Amino acid sequence: MTRPIGIDLFAGAGGMSLGFEQAGFDIVAAVEIDPVHCAVHKFNFPHCAVMPRSVVGLTGSEIRVAAGIGKRRVDVVFGGAPCQGFSMIGQRALDDPRNSLVRDFLRIVSELEASYFVFENVKGLTLGQHRKFLDEIVETADELGYDVLSPWRVLDAANFGVPQHRERLFLYGARRPKKLPGYPRQSTKAADGRGKASSSLPTGPSAFDALSDLPDAELFEVLNQTDEVRPDAWGSPSPYASELRCLTNEAWHYGYVRNWDPSLLTSSARTSHTEISQRRFASTQGGDTEPVSRFYKLAADGVSNTLRAGTDGARGAFTSPRPIHYNYARCVTVREMARLHGYPDWFRFNETKWHGARQIGNSVPPPLARAVAERVMSSLNITPERPFETVGLGDAALLRMNLTQAAEFFGIEAMPSKRDRKSGATKRRQWEIEDTTRRVAGIGGR
Q1: Does residue 207 contact residue 299 with C-beta atoms inside 8 Å?
Q2: DSSP strand E in 124-283: where?
Q3: Are 84 and 439 in contact (CB under 8 A)?
Q4: Would you call 258 helix, strand, or coil by DSSP?
Q5: Mean pLDDT for each consecutive 10-residue tract of the chain (446 residues)?
Q6: Where are the alpha helices (DSSP H) in 203-346?
Q7: 58: Cβ–Cβ under 8 A, 6 or more apart, which residues?
Q8: How many CB atoms lie within 10 A of CB 264?
Q9: Which of these, 393, 67, 98, 114, lies nearest to 261 by C-alpha position?
Q10: Between β-strands 390-392 and 257-259, what pairing exists: parallel, antiparallel or unpaired?
Q11: Which of 269, 309, 99, 286 lies closest to 192, judged by CA?
C-alpha cells in the first residue's frame, strides 16, 4: 500500500504531523530548529526523518534526500511559519527580514513541487494591518504557481471535537491546475455553548469527559521524581477518553498503531503548590479566573481556555500558565493538558513540565489538524486506508533530554545563552524568530 506523503515544516513536537498521519498521510520529514522538540518528534514518529535545523538555506532537494523519497511526488507540505505581520511604510511585509521564514516556507513548497500546502497561523494575522501581510502571502503563492482558497477561514478546535477553545487560521494552497480543497465542516459545538455551532450539531467533549478517568497525580509520591507511574486502577472513560486511550481500533483513524503500554500513566509529573495557593484554587469557581495567579479554572461541563506555551531559554524560560483542574486544587498535569488538546495517551512529551507544556501549547490540536488534512486527502481523490504495520516508539531517553543533550544527540550546536552576546547573537536571534511562532501572544504560531 502506497500512502500519500506529507512534510512538516516548523514541526514542534508533532501535532500537525499526527493529525495528517491520522488522515492517511505518511509523514516522511519534519523540520524543527529546537532539538528538544526534535527528540520528542523522533520518539513518537521513529520512521520520520527529523531535520534539526532552521528552514533558512534549506532546500527541497535536501529534504528529499533526508526523507529518502527520491523523485516521488510530495502531496502536501504543512506548517506554521512564524511571521511578525508588520510592514514598514512603502515596503512589502514579506520583504521585512523578520518575515523571512514565511518566504522560506513558500520557497520550499515550490522547490518540492508539492501538490498542496497548508499554512497555519494565529487568528491575529487576519486583523488590522496584518491583513496586508496575509494578502502578500497569497500573492507570493500565486507567483509560485499556487492558488489559495479564498475567503480564508479561522477554525476553532472546540468545533472539531476538542475540549478547548483554540482559534487558528488555515490557508489551503493548490499547485495549478489542481483543485483546491474546501474547509472542513465543524463537527461539534463547544460544551460550554460558546462555540458558533448550529444547535443541530452534537455537543463536543467537556473537561470532565477529557479528564475524569485519569488517576489523580497527587496520589503518587513517585511523580515528584518522574513523570510516569503504573496506577492500580483507572476511572471509567467517556467516549472521548476511550478514543485517546485507544480502546478501539477506530481510535487510530488512518494512522499507524503504536506498540505502547496502556497501563502506564505518563507525562504526569506533580507540581508543588503552597497551601495558600491551594485554598485560592479551591475557592475559585469553575469557568472563572483565580484573581492572584490569573489562572483559569476549568469548568467540569465546559471546555478549556486556549492552552498557551511558555517561553524558551532565550526569553527567560517562563512556564506556561496551565489551568486549574475542575476537581483538584492544583494545575493540570502535562498529560491532562494533552487530553484537553486531543493527543492520544501513547503520545509522549519531554518529561519536564516546562518543556512538555510548551510542546503542547505550541502545537495544533491533532483532531483539528486531522479535519484539515482530510480535505486535502479528498482533493487528491484518494480513499485513505488503514496501514497494517504496527510501529514501535522510540527510545525513552529521547524524552529525558535537556537542550544540551538533545543538541549533542543530533550533532548540532545548542542554542546560545543570553550571555553569548557576540558569537551566539546571530544564531540566538534565529531561534528567537522561529520561536515567535510558538507564542500565542505574538503574531504567528503553531
Answers
A1: yes
A2: 146-148, 153-156, 167-175, 257-259
A3: no
A4: strand
A5: 93 97 98 97 98 96 98 97 62 70 95 98 81 89 97 95 96 97 94 63 95 97 97 97 94 97 97 94 96 95 89 49 95 98 98 95 96 98 94 97 96 63 45 46 38
A6: 207-211, 239-244, 275-283, 334-341
A7: 31, 51, 104, 108
A8: 14
A9: 393
A10: parallel
A11: 286
Reading the block at residue 176, the C-alpha cell is: 495549478
* 8 A C-beta contact, residue 67 and residue 107: no
DSSP code per residue over 37-77? HHHHHHHH-TTSEEE-S-STT--HHHHHHHHT-TTPPP-EE
- Integer Cα distance of 268 and 229 in angstroms: 8
- 288-347 pLDDT tens trace: 999 999 999 999 999 999 998 754 444 444 556 899 999 999 999 999 999 999 999 999
> Quick one: how far is CA 57 from the chain centroid?
24
For the segment 207-242, what is each residue's pLDDT rounded down to a tens digit? Answer: 999 999 999 999 999 999 999 999 999 999 999 999
Query: What 3-state class would DSSP assign to 155?
Result: strand
Nearest to 35 by CA among 8, 63, 62, 13: 13
Report, as residue numbers or ranges, the catalytic residues: 83
Q: Quote the cell numbers at residue 323.
A: 489551568
For residues 12 and 365, give the distance between their C-alpha atoms in angstroms, rounded to a whole number: 12
**Residues forming a β-bridge with 6:** 27, 76
Residues 6+ apart with CB under 8 A from 438: 12, 82, 309, 312, 358, 361, 362, 445, 446
- Provide the β-strand partners of residue 391: 258
- Of the candidates 384, 338, 357, 348, the one whose C-alpha atom is nearest the C-alpha of residue 20 is 384
Longest alpha-carbon distance in the chain: 65
Angle (CA) 244 227 343, round 5°: 20
The CA distance from 60 to 253, in Å, is 30
User: Could you check whether the bond before residue 151 is cis, i.e. omega within 30 degrees of 0?
Assistant: yes
> Residue 294: how many CB atoms within 10 A of its CB?
8
Beta strand extents in 55-151 (DSSP E only): 76-79, 116-122, 146-148
| Residue recorded with cell 497501563 | 263
- What residues pair up with 153 in beta bridges, in sequence order? 170
Pair 323, 302: CB distance under 8 Å: no
For 116-151, how does the pLDDT look when each residue is reduced to its tens digit (9 = 90+)?
A: 999 999 888 788 777 888 888 999 999 999 999 999
Q: Which three cell numbers stand for residue 351?
A: 518529561
Rg (CA), the chain: 21
Helix (H), strand (E) at residue 383: none
Per DSSP bridges, beta strands 167-175 and 5-9 are unpaired
Distance in angstroms between the alpha carbons of the first and the last residue of the chain: 31
